[in-house]
Specification:
The complex is a heterotetramer of chains A (668), B (219), C (492) and D (320).
Chain A lengths: L1 H21 L2 H29 L3 E5 L8 E5 L1 H23 L8 H16 L6 H19 L7 H32 L4 H7 L5 H19 L8 H7 L2 H26 L5 H24 L3 H28 L3 H36 L10 H4 L3 H12 L7 H15 L5 H32 L7 H5 L5 H19 L5 H9 L11 E2 L2 E3 L6 E2 L1 H22 L5 E3 L17 H11 L1 H4 L2 E8 L7 E9 L3 H23 L5 H19 L1
Chain B lengths: L2 H24 L3 H26 L2 H25 L15 H26 L7 H17 L3 H23 L4 H29 L13
Helix pairs in contact in B: 1-2, 1-5, 1-6, 2-3, 2-6, 3-7, 4-5, 5-6, 6-7
Chain C lengths: L1 H18 L4 H28 L2 E3 L4 E3 L1 H21 L14 H23 L3 H19 L5 H34 L10 H7 L5 H19 L7 H8 L2 H30 L1 H24 L4 H22 L2 H32 L10 H4 L1 H14 L6 H15 L3 H26 L20 H19 L2 H14 L2
Antiparallel strand pairs in C: 1-2
Helix pairs in contact in C: 1-2, 1-4, 2-3, 3-4, 3-10, 3-13, 3-19, 4-5, 4-10, 5-6, 5-10, 6-8, 6-9, 8-10, 8-11, 9-10, 9-12, 10-11, 10-12, 10-13, 11-12, 11-17, 12-13, 12-16, 12-17, 13-15, 13-16, 13-18, 13-19, 15-17, 15-18, 16-17, 16-18
Classes of the chains: A mainly alpha (668), B mainly alpha (219), C mainly alpha (492), D mainly alpha (320).
Chain lengths: 668, 219, 492, 320
C-alpha cells in the first residue's frame, strides 16, 4: 500500500515535469504546480503512514538503473524527512501560483521544479548506494538549474551557480567514494546489508567512509567550511526554490550524516562525533555572525541556514557521542532535539524565505537598506515574516524555542556522565548555542526592524503593497505552523521520537511529552510552551486592558520626536549596516570587514565635504583564505600546463618516441 | 641456396636497410634522401625474397614483389615528383644537427640491440637474430620524424618506421598472410599519398613551409 | 549474410552520394543507410543474444556480443552525424554556395569512414582490424583537412603523422602477438583470429606478450587518444567539420579502444590480469591528469570537448583496467553514453560555430538567452558529459568506480575522482561564460550570418541523442542483457 | 514536587509574587536612587518617587509617531507581559508557585529575551536614528550576554540534574555544602555581570543619562509617552526585581517558603525584601564608584563573564 503510494508520488512528480515541459503556456504553472502539490500530498501520506505504522515502504526493481538496481525502502527515520519536504513543498508550490519573479515561469524551470521536488521526496527513501547517489545527484543538478533560472538578468546568479556547482560536485565526489568504499567492502550495495556487515569492517574503512560522508553531506548541508556556495546560491534562487533549498534540501545533509554514521555504520568512535560537533559549532558561530552582519535579507537568511545546520549537527554529534559512551537514552534525546530542530527550521525558514520573496516582489529589492515600513504596507506578509523571525530567534511562544530548549537539555543532562570528551564538548556546545541564540535574536531584530518597521527608505518600498493571495497563503501556512508547533509541540514530538527511534541502538524509556508539555523522562520539571503562550496572551491582554482603562483618550499621531529633530526622514534612519556595526566591531578580528570611505569635496574648497559614503563589505573568510587561493593555484597550474603542448608536431612526436623507448626498456 | 650464403645475403640486405636509415639521417638533400628510400625499399624486398626462397614460401615472394613495387618504385617516384618543384631544397636547419643525430642514432641502435635480444632469442632462427636491425630502423625513423623540419623528411621518417617494422615482421614470422600484407602495403601507400597531397596543399596555400612553423593550433 | 549487409550498407550509402553527386537526396540516402546499419545491428544483437556469435564472408567477419554492441554504437552515432552532415559541405567557408563535387567527396569519405569502422569491429582477424583502423586514419585525414584552412591542414598533417606512427607501433605489437601465436602452435592462416588467439593464449610466451601488449596500448592508444600519444586529438577535433569531429570523438576513439579491449583479454589469459591492469591504470591516470590540467586554461570550446574526450578515454581505460565483468559492462555503457553525448555536443558546437563565427570560448556569450535551442542543447550535453544523472555517464562512472574499488584499484579511483572534479570545475567555468548572461543587444551584423534558430530537423536528432543517453542511464532493460553478454566476451 | 500545596495557595503565591514585582520594582529603583544620592551627599527624592512618576505618566496622553505600525504600541505590552509571566511562575517567594513545574531557567531567559526584542522592535518602528541606535546597542549587548547567562545557568543546573528552578532551589536547600563550591561563586559573578548588563545599569549603561550618544535603553524609549512610557519604565524595574530575586534565591535560598502557610510566606517576604535591599544597596554603591564603560569595552566584560561561567561548568565536573 505505502509502496504503491511511493511509486505514485514519483510518477506524480514526473507528470508535473511533463506538464511543465509540454503544457501550453496558459496552464503551465497551474498544471505543474498542481501536480507537484499532488506529489507532495502523496509523499506526505506515505511519510505519515510509515511514521505512524512503522512499516517501511519498499520498492525494488532491476528495470531501472542499469548494472545495478533501483531500490527504495522508506523507514520511519526517512519518513520524517519526506513529510517535512512534503509540507514545505506544498507551501512553496502554493506560493508559486502567485509568484511571477525571476523567470520561474519559463518552460525549463516549470519542468525542472517538479523533478527537484520529486528527488527531494525520494532521497530519504533510497535504500541502496546507486539509487541514493542517483537521486542525490538528480537533486543537485535540478537545484543547480533552478538556481540559474534568473541568470540572464543578474550576473551574481552565474557566480552563485558556479560556486554551487563546484561545491556540490566536491561533495558528491566525496560521497561517491565514501559510499562505494563502504558498499564494496561490505559486498553489497543495499543499505540494509551494509548496516549488518559494516561492524566487521576494519576501522580505517569505517572512519574513511564516515569522514567522506561528512564532507559530502556537510557540503550539501552548508556546514562550514563547505558552506561557501550557500550564501550565494540560496539568495539568488527564485523564492520558492530558495525556500525548498533552505528548508528541505539542507535537511538531507543532516539526514545523510545520521543515516551513514548511525545507520549504516551503527555509530563510531568519539572523534567522529567530536568532528561533527566541531563542524556544527563552527557552522553555528560563523553562520550566525555573518547573518548578523549581512544587509541583504536573503543572504542573511542563507547564512542563518548555515547557523541552524550547525545547531542540528551539534545535536547529531552529541547524540553520536552519547551513543558511543553508552548513554542511549541521552543519545536519543539529542537526536530528537536535532531532528526537531530540522522540522522547526524547515517551518520557520520556509516561511521566512517565502515571505522574503514576497518582500522582494513587492518592494523590488531584498537589500535591507532599500526597505523599511513594509509591515504597514504588507498587512499579511509582514506579520508572516515577523512570526518566522521570532520563531527562528527561539522566542516563545514560537517553535524554535522548543527545539533549542531540548538541545540545551540534552547537553545539560549529558554533562554528569563523567566522560572527558563529553565534559569538554558539552559546555562548548551550550556556549555556542547561547551565542548563536543571542546573535540570531540580534539578526532578526535587525531584519524585522530595519526591513519591515520604520520608514520606507526608497520609493519602491514606499509604493509596495500586499502580494497576491496564493503567496501569502503559502508562506502563511508555514507561519501558522510556527505558532502551532510552538504552542503545542506535542503534535510533532512523538513522531520525531519514533523517527529517531528507527536509528538502531537508540531508545528512550518513556515519552518526551506529558500532556501539552515537553518533559524528560525521570527529570522533574518540564517545558510548558502552551502555558507560556496562555500566560503571555493573558497578561498581555490584562496589561493592554489596563492601559486602555487608565488612558481612554485616542492615541495621537505625531511627528517622531527624535530628541528634537525637526523633520524625520528615512535618511536619518538606522540602516542595516549601522545596526550591525557594533557587532562588526566586536568581531572585527573574525570578520575582518573592509571599509571604504568615499569623500567628495565641495568645488569651492576641499576643506568642506559635500558627501561622505562609507562602504563596509564583509567577505567570507573561508572564501578569501581557502577557496580563492586554491582557485588561483589551479589557474596557475593550468597556465603552466598549457605551455607544454605548444603545437609543434616534433614535440608531440618526441613524446611518442620517449614513450616507445620507455616501453622497450621496461617491457622488453 | 646454402645455409651460410643465405644468411650472409640476408644479413647484407637487412644491414643495407639500417645503413640507408643512418644515411638518411646524414643527408640533407631531399633528392639524395629519396634515392636512399628507394634503396631501402629494395633491400627490404630483397630480405623478403631471400626468406621466401629459403622457406619456399610463395606468399612471401608475392609479398616481396608488392614491397618492391610499392616501396622501391612507386613511392620514391611519387616522392620525387611531389618534391619536384623543391627537389633542390635541403634540410638546412634540422632541429637536431647531423653530428648529434648520428650520435643519437648510435644510441638508438644500441637500445634496439639490447631490447631486441629477447625477441631475437625467442624467434630462435638465424633470421630472427637480425630482428634488432628492424627495431633499430624503426627507432631511427621515429627519430627522423622528431628531428627534421621538412615535410618530405617526415614522410620519409614514416616510411622508415614502416620499413623497420616490416623488416621485423619478415624476420620474426616470415610475413603475414598475404592478403593482410597486401592491405598493409596498400595502407602505407595511401598514407604516403595523402601526406604528399597534404604537403603539396600546404605549399600551394602557404608557400614553402617548415613543419615547425605549423604551430597555430595549441591551447 | 547479415554481417556482410551491415558492412556494405554504409558503403552503399556512399555510392549513392557519389552517384547523386552530393545532392541533398543522396545525402539523405546515406543517412538512411546508416540508420539501416543501426537497425541491422540491433537485429544482429538480438540474434547474437539468442544464437551465439555470428560469422560471415567465409569466416572473415565475426560478430559476438561485443562486436554487435560496437556496431550499434557506430550505427547510432553515424546516424546522428550524417543527419547533421547533410548540410555541412554547403557550409565550408570558402565555398559560400553548395559545391556538388566537394559534397560528393565529403559524403563518400564519411560513408567510407563509417564502413571501415564497422569492418574494424566485425573483423574476425587482428590483421584486418589493423588494416581497417589504419584506413580510417587515411580517410579521415582528408575530412579533417576538408575546410582547407591553414589550421585544418596543420591539424590534418599532425593527425596523419602521429596516428600513422602510432598505428605502426600497433602493427609491431600485432607482429609480436602473431609470433607468439605461431610459436604456441597456431596455424598461420588463422593464428590471428580472435577465437584462435583466445584459445591458444595460455601458451603464449609471457615476456613477448608483455612487449606486444605494451606496443599495442601505445599504438592503438594513439588512436584512442590516450596519453602520451593523444597530441593529435585536440587539433583534429577542433578543425574537422562538426559531424566528422562527432564521429571521431564519438566512435573512432572507442573503436580503437575496442582493439585494446580485445587484446587485453588475450593478454589477461597469457599473463594474468595484473599486467594489463598496471599498464591501463598508468595510461588512464596519465590521460586524466593531462586532460584535467589542460582544460583549466582552455580557450576554445571545440578543444575543450576534445580534451574532455581524452578524459573520458582515461576513465574508460581505468574501467577496463579493473577488468571484471561489471567493469567491462560499465565501460561499454560509457562508450555508448559518451559517444552520444559527445557527438551531440560536437554537432551542436558546429552549429554554434556557424552561428557565432568563432570557436573561442570568450567569443561566445549569453548563448542560452540569445539562442535558446543551441545553448540549451550545449548545456544539457555538458551536464550529460560531466556525469550527472539522469544521463548514462553517471551510472557507468559510478559502476566503474565500484568495480575499481572491488579489484583493489580504489586509490586509482580516488585519483580519477580528483581529476574529474578539476575537469568539472574547469568545464563549468567555461560553460558559464559561454551559456549564461543577458541577451543584450544583437551583435553587429558583420560578425556572423545566421541568426535564425536551427530548423526542427536539425534539432530533433540532437535532442533524440540526449534523450537516448538519458534513457539508457535510467532504464536497464534494453541494454543490460547485451552489456553483460558483451562483457563476458572479454572479461574473465 | 513536594506535596501539601493546594491549588489555591499556589495561585495565591503567584498573585503575591506578581504584586510584589509590580510594586517592588519601582520601590527598589527609588531605594537605589536614594542610596546613590545619599552617597553623593544629596537628599534625593523619596523612595516611592518612581511610583508617583508612573502614576503621573499614566494620566498623560498616548502618542505614536505617524510612521510607526502596530508593533510600536504592542511592544511595551509584550515587555511587561513577559516579565509578569516570569514573575508568576518563577519561585521568587516560595518554591511552588502555581505552575512552578514549568519554571525552567532556560525558558525564563528566552522569555526575558522576547521582552528585549519587542522593545528593540518598538524602538526601530519609530524610524528615528536614536531608536535604531538604542536597539542596535541593546541587542549587541544582549547577544553577548546570552552565552554567559546560559552557561552560568548550566553550571547551576548540573548539580541539580535539572534546569527547573524550584528543583534547583530545593536541592540546594537540601545540600547547603553546594553553596560554597567554586562553581557557585564563579557562576555568581557571571550572573551579576550579566544582570547588570541586561538591566542597563552602570557600568554598561547609565539609566539616568540623556546624553545622546551614550544612551542605550533610554534611546529606545524616547518616543514613548504616557501610559506606554509608564509600562516600559515599569517593566524595566520589574525585570530588575525578578533578576535580583532569582539571583538571591539561587545563591542564598534560605528564607524562601518551602511549605504553605502564612508564616512561611511572611518570612519569605521579609527575607526577600532584605535580600533585595542588600543587593540594591550594593549595586547603588557600586554604581557610584564606577564610571560608565565605553560601549566597545562592554564585550570584554561579557567575555569575562562567559569565561567565568565556563570555568564554573568545568569545575562542576572536576569537583564531584
Amino acid at each position: 500500500m505505502t509502496a504503491a503510494l511511493l511509486v505514485a508520488t514519483a510518477l506524480m512528480g514526473l507528470a508535473g515535469t511533463a506538464a511543465g515541459a509540454i503544457a501550453p503556456v496558459r496552464f503551465r504553472i497551474a498544471l505543474s504546480s498542481a501536480l507537484t502539490i499532488a506529489a507532495c500530498a502523496l509523499g506526505f501520506v506515505v511519510g505519515a503512514e510509515v511514521l505512524h505504522s512503522g512499516h517501511a515502504a519498499v520498492v525494488h526493481t532491476t528495470t531501472l538503473m542499469p548494472l545495478a538496481s533501483f531500490s527504495l525502502a522508506l523507514d520511519r527515520f526517512g519518513a520524517l524527512f519526506v513529510v517535512i519536504t512534503a509540507v514545505v513543498g506544498i507551501c512553496a508550490m502554493i506560493f508559486r501560483f502567485g509568484y511571477d519573479g525571476q523567470g520561474l515561469a519559463s518552460r525549463t524551470a516549470s519542468s525542472i521544479l517538479p523533478l527537484f521536488v520529486t528527488s527531494l521526496l525520494l532521497v530519504p527513501a533510497a535504500s541502496n548506494v546507486t539509487t541514493f547517489l542517483f537521486l542525490w545527484e538528480l537533486m543537485a543538478i535540478t537545484s543547480l538549474l533552478l538556481v540559474l533560472t534568473d541568470h540572464a538578468r543578474r550576473s551574481e546568479v552565474q557566480v552563485a551557480g558556479q560556486w554551487y556547482a563546484v561545491m556540490t560536485q566536491l561533495g558528491a565526489a566525496a560521497l561517491i567514494l565514501g559510499l562505494v568504499l563502504l558498499a564494496t567492502r561490505s559486498g553489497s550495495q543495499s543499505f540494509a546489508v551494509i548496516a549488518v556487515r559494516s561492524a566487521h569492517l576494519p576501522a580505517w574503512v569505517r572512519s574513511t567512509a564516515f569522514v567522506l560522508a561528512v564532507v559530502g553531506f556537510g557540503s550539501k548541508a552548508g556546514a562550514v567550511p563547505l558552506h561557501v556556495w550557500l550564501p550565494r546560491a540560496h539568495p539568488e534562487a527564485p523564492g520558492p526554490v530558495s525556500a525548498l533549498m533552505s528548508a528541505a534540501m539542507v535537511n538531507l545533509g543532516v539526514y545523510g550524516i545520521v543515516r551513514v554514521g548511525m545507520g549504516l555504520l551503527s555509530g563510531g568512535p568519539a572523534w567522529w562525533w567530536l568532528l561533527v560537533m566541531g563542524l556544527g559549532a563552527l557552522s553555528a558561530m560563523f553562520g550566525s555572525l555573518h547573518s548578523a552582519t549581512s544587509k541583504d535579507l536573503k543572504r542573511l537568511l542563507a547564512y542563518s541556514t548555515t547557523d541552524n545546520v550547525g545547531l542540528m549537527l551539534l545535536g547529531v554529534g552529541a547524540s553520536g557521542l552519547f551513543a558511543d559512551t553508552g548513554h542511549r537514552a541521552l543519545a536519543l534525546l539529542a537526536l530528537v532535539a536535532a531532528l526537531l530542530h530540522v522540522v522547526f527550521h524547515a517551518v520557520f525558514k520556509g516561511s521566512l524565505f517565502l515571505s522574503a520573496s514576497s518582500v522582494h516582489q513587492a518592494a523590488g529589492s531584498t537589500d535591507l537598506d532599500q526597505l523599511g515600513g513594509l509591515l504597514r504596507r504588507m498587512p499579511v506578509s509582514g506579520p508572516i515574516f515577523l512570526v518566522g523571525g521570532l520563531a527562528i530567534a527561539a522566542l516563545p511562544p514560537f517553535c524554535g524555542f522548543v527545539s533549542e530548549w531540548l538541545l540545551l537539555q540534552s547537553m545539560l543532562h549529558g554533562l554528569p556522565s563523567g566522560d572527558v570528551a563529553i565534559a569538554v564538548a558539552m559546555p562548548i556546545g551550550v556556549g555556542v548555542l547561547a551565542l548563536t541564540g543571542g546573535l540570531t535574536a540580534f539578526t532578526f531584530t535587525k531584519a524585522i526592524g530595519i526591513g519591515l518597521l520604520g520608514l520606507p527608505r526608497t520609493q519602491d518600498a514606499e509604493r509596495a503593497g500586499e502580494v497576491g493571495r496564493p503567496m501569502w497563503i503559502g508562506a502563511g501556512l508555514l507561519a501558522v505552523l510556527c505558532l502551532v508547533f510552538g504552542v503545542a509541540p506535542f503534535l510533532v514530538i512523538p513522531s520525531v521520537v519514533d523517527a529517531a527511534g528507527a536509528v538502531p541502538g537508540l531508545h528512550l524509556a518513556g515519552a518526551l511529552t506529558r500532556g501539552w508539555n515537553v518533559a524528560l523522562p525521570g527529570v522533574p520539571g518540564m517545558l510548558a510552551p502552551g502555558l507560556v503562550a496562555i500566560g503571555l496572551v493573558g497578561f498581555g491582554g490584562l496589561v493592554a486592558l489596563g492601559r486602555h482603562l487608565v488612558q481612554q483618550r485616542p492615541v495621537r499621531l505625531t511627528e517622531a520626536w527624535g530628541c528634537g529633530r525637526e523633520l524625520q526622514t528615512a535618511r536619518m534612519e538606522y540602516t542595516a549596516t549601522s545596526f550591525g556595526e557594533p557587532l562588526t566591531r566586536v568581531f572585527e578580528d573574525v570578520l575582518s570587514p573592509a571599509r571604504d570611505v568615499d569623500v567628495s569635496h565641495l568645488a569651492e574648497s576641499r576643506y568642506y565635504t559635500e558627501a561622505a559614503v562609507i562602504h563596509t563589505t564583509i567577505d567570507d573568510a573561508f572564501e578569501r583564505r581557502v577557496y580563492r587561493p586554491a582557485d588561483r593555484m589551479l589557474v596557475r597550474w593550468g597556465a603552466v600546463a598549457r605551455r607544454v603542448p605548444n603545437g609543434s608536431v616534433h614535440r608531440y612526436l618526441a613524446f611518442g618516441l620517449v614513450a616507445l623507448i620507455v616501453v622497450l626498456v621496461v617491457l622488453a | 641456396m646454402s645455409g651460410s650464403s643465405y644468411f650472409s645475403v640476408l644479413t647484407l640486405a637487412a644491414g643495407t636497410v639500417l645503413v640507408c636509415a643512418v644515411a638518411i639521417l646524414w643527408l640533407a638533400s631531399i633528392r639524395a634522401v629519396i634515392s636512399m628510400v628507394a634503396v631501402q625499399g629494395a633491400s627490404l624486398g630483397l630480405v623478403a625474397v631471400v626468406l621466401g626462397v629459403h622457406l619456399h614460401d610463395a606468399g612471401l615472394l608475392a609479398a616481396a614483389a608488392v614491397v618492391v613495387v610499392v616501396k622501391a618504385v612507386v613511392i620514391p617516384v611519387l616522392l620525387g615528383r611531389a618534391s619536384g618543384s623543391d627537389s633542390g631544397s635541403r634540410e638546412s636547419r634540422p632541429l637536431v644537427n647531423v653530428p648529434a643525430s648520428l650520435v643519437a642514432s648510435a644510441a638508438l641502435i644500441v637500445l634496439a640491440f639490447v631490447t631486441g635480444r629477447g625477441v631475437a632469442h625467442f624467434v630462435g632462427t638465424r633470421a630472427g637474430a637480425l630482428v634488432p636491425i628492424g627495431i633499430a630502423t624503426m627507432l631511427i625513423g621515429f627519430f627522423v620524424l622528431v628531428a627534421r623540419r621538412r615535410p618530405t623528411f617526415q614522410i620519409v621518417g614514416l616510411l622508415m618506421v614502416d620499413n623497420g617494422i616490416a623488416l621485423t615482421a619478415f624476420l620474426c614470422t616470415a610475413g603475414f598472410p598475404f592478403l593482410i600484407e597486401l592491405g598493409v602495403s596498400f595502407d602505407v601507400l595511401l598514407g604516403v599519398v595523402v601526406l604528399m597531397v597534404l604537403s603539396q596543399r600546404l605549399r600551394l596555400e602557404f608557400g614553402d613551409v617548415d613543419l615547425d612553423e605549423l604551430q597555430e593550433l595549441h591551447d | 549474410m547479415l554481417l556482410m549487409t551491415i558492412l556494405v550498407l554504409p558503403l552503399l550509402g556512399g555510392t549513392a552520394v557519389a552517384l547523386g553527386r552530393g545532392r541533398t537526396w543522396s545525402a539523405w540516402a546515406a543517412v538512411a543507410s546508416n540508420g539501416g546499419a543501426l537497425a541491422l545491428g540491433i537485429i544482429a544483437a538480438v540474434r547474437v543474444l539468442r544464437e551465439g556469435p555470428l560469422s560471415g564472408a567465409r569466416g572473415t567477419l565475426r560478430a559476438d556480443a561485443l562486436s554487435v554492441f560496437m556496431v550499434i554504437v557506430i550505427g547510432a552515432i553515424s546516424l546522428l552525424a550524417s543527419w547533421l552532415g547533410v548540410r555541412t559541405p554547403a557550409r565550408a567557408p570558402e565555398d559560400g554556395h553548395r559545391n556538388p563535387e566537394r559534397s560528393a567527396v565529403y559524403g563518400v569519405l564519411v560513408q567510407a569512414f563509417v564502413g571501415f569502422m564497422i569492418l574494424a569491429v566485425l573483423a574476425a582477424n587482428v590483421g584486418v582490424l589493423w588494416v581497417a583502423v589504419e584506413a580510417t586514419t587515411i580517410v579521415t585525414a582528408f575530412l579533417v583537412g576538408f575546410r582547407r584552412t591553414r589550421g585544418s591542414l596543420e591539424a590534418s598533417w599532425k593527425y596523419i603523422v602521429i596516428c600513422s606512427v602510432g598505428i605502426a607501433l600497433a602493427f609491431l605489437g600485432t607482429v609480436f602477438v602473431y609470433l607468439a601465436a605461431l610459436h604456441a602452435g597456431g596455424h598461420s592462416a588463422h593464428a590471428l583470429d580472435w577465437t584462435s588467439l583466445m584459445a591458444h593464449a595460455r601458451h603464449f610466451d609471457p615476456s613477448l606478450m608483455r612487449l606486444a601488449f605494451g606496443l599495442l596500448v601505445l599504438g592503438y592508444g594513439t588512436k584512442v587518444g590516450l596519453a602520451p600519444m593523444h597530441t593529435w586529438l585536440p587539433d583534429a577535433h577542433s578543425q574537422a567539420p562538426a559531424p566528422v569531429s562527432a564521429l571521431m570523438s564519438g566512435v573512432l576513439l572507442t573503436v580503437a579502444f575496442y582493439a585494446i579491449l580485445r587484446f587485453k583479454a588475450v593478454t589477461d589469459v597469457a599473463l594474468g590480469p595484473g599486467f594489463a591492469r598496471t599498464l591501463l591504470v598508468i595510461v588512464g591516470l596519465l590521460s586524466l591528469a593531462l586532460a584535467a590540467s589542460l582544460l583549466i586554461a582552455q580557450r576554445d570550446y571545440k578543444r575543450m570537448l576534445a580534451y574532455s574526450s581524452i578524459e573520458h578515454m582515461g576513465l574508460i581505460a581505468l574501467g577496463a583496467a579493473a577488468g571484471i565483468r561489471l567493469a567491462i559492462a560499465a565501460v561499454l555503457l560509457h562508450i555508448l553514453g559518451h559517444g552520444l553525448a559527445k557527438s551531440v555536443l560536437f554537432l551542436t558546437s558546429g552549429e554554434i560555430l556557424t552561428a557565432e563565427g568563432t570557436s573561442r570560448i570568450d567569443g561566445v556569450r549569453s548563448l542560452v538567452a540569445r539562442r535558446p535551442a543551441l545553448g540549451g542543447l550545449f548545456g544539457v550535453g555538458l551536464v550529460a558529459l560531466l556525469g550527472l544523472p539522469p544521463f548514462s555517464l553517471f551510472t557507468s562512472e559510478l559502476v566503474m568506480v565500484r568495480a575499481e574499488f572491488e579489484v583493489g584499484l580504489g586509490w586509482a579511483a580516488v585519483l580519477a575522482m580528483v581529476a574529474m572534479v578539476v575537469v568539472f570545475i574547469a568545464v563549468v567555468g567555461h560553460a558559464r561564460h559561454m551559456l549564461l548572461g543577458p541577451a543584450g543587444p544583437p551583435r553587429p551584423a558583420g560578425s556572423s550570418g545566421v541568426t535564425a534558430p536551427p530548423p526542427r530537423w536539425v534539432a530533433a536528432p540532437l535532442i533524440g541523442g540526449l534523450v537516448v543517453c538519458g534513457f539508457i542511464g535510467v532504464f536497464a532493460w534494453p541494454l543490460s542483457g547485451l552489456l553483460t553478454a558483451a562483457a563476458r566476451v572479454v572479461a574473465t | 514536587m513536594s506535596t501539601g500545596w493546594s491549588i489555591t495557595s499556589m495561585s495565591a503565591i503567584s498573585l503575591l509574587q506578581v504584586v510584589l514585582v509590580i510594586v517592588g520594582g519601582p520601590l527598589l529603583l527609588g531605594f537605589m536612587r536614594k542610596v546613590r544620592c545619599r552617597m553623593e551627599g544629596r537628599v534625593g527624592p523619596p523612595v516611592h518617587q518612581p511610583l508617583l512618576d508612573l502614576r503621573k505618566m499614566a494620566g498623560r496622553e498616548r502618542t505614536r509617531p505617524e510612521h510607526a505600525s502596530w508593533v510600536f504600541p504592542l511592544a511595551p505590552v509584550v515587555l511587561v507581559a513577559t516579565t509578569l509571566v516570569v514573575a508568576a511562575v518563577a519561585p521568587l517567594l516560595a518554591t511552588d508557585p502555581a505552575f512552578g513545574w514549568s519554571a525552567d531557567l532556560f525558558a525564563v531567559v528566552f522569555l526575558l529575551l522576547l521582552g528585549s526584542v519587542s522593545l528593540a522592535l518598538g524602538a526601530l518602528d519609530t524610524g528615528t536614528a536614536f531608536g535604531g541606535m538604542g536597539a542596535s546597542r541593546a541587542m549587541t549587548i544582549g547577544a553577548l550576554a546570552e552565552p554567559a547567562l546560559l552557561v552560568a545557568i548550566l553550571a547551576l543546573s548540573v548539580p541539580a540534574h535539572s534546569s527547573n528552578l524550584p528543583t534547583i532551589i530545593i536541592r540546594s536547600l537540601a545540600h547547603p555544602a553546594w553553596l560554597a563550591t567554586p562553581e557557585r561563586v564563579l557562576a555568581l559573578v557571571a550572573f551579576v555581570i550579566v544582570i547588570v548588563a541586561e538591566s542597563g545599569r552602570l557600568p554598561v549603561d547609565n539609566p539616568s543619562t540623556h546624553l545622546e550618544l551614550t544612551m542605550i535603553h533610554e534611546a529606545m524609549m524616547l518616543e514613548y509617552a504616557g501610559p506606554d512610557l509608564a509600562l516600559v519604565k515599569l517593566a524595566e524595574s520589574m525585570r530588575l526585581v525578578v533578576l535580583f530575586t532569582l539571583l538571591a534565591d539561587l545563591f542564598v535560598p534560605w528564607g524562601i517558603a518551602t511549605s504553605p502557610g502564612p508564616w512561611h510566606l511572611a518570612v519569605a517576604l521579609a527575607s526577600t525584601a532584605g535580600k533585595l535591599v542588600v543587593l540594591g544597596a550594593a549595586l547603588a554603591v557600586f554604581e557610584v564608584t564606577v564610571a560608565k564603560l565605553r560601549l566597545f569595552r562592554v564585550p570584554e566584560l561579557l567575555a569575562g563573564a562567559f569565561v567565568l561561567a565556563t570555568l564554573a561548568v568545568l569545575s562542576t565536573l572536576v569537583v564531584p
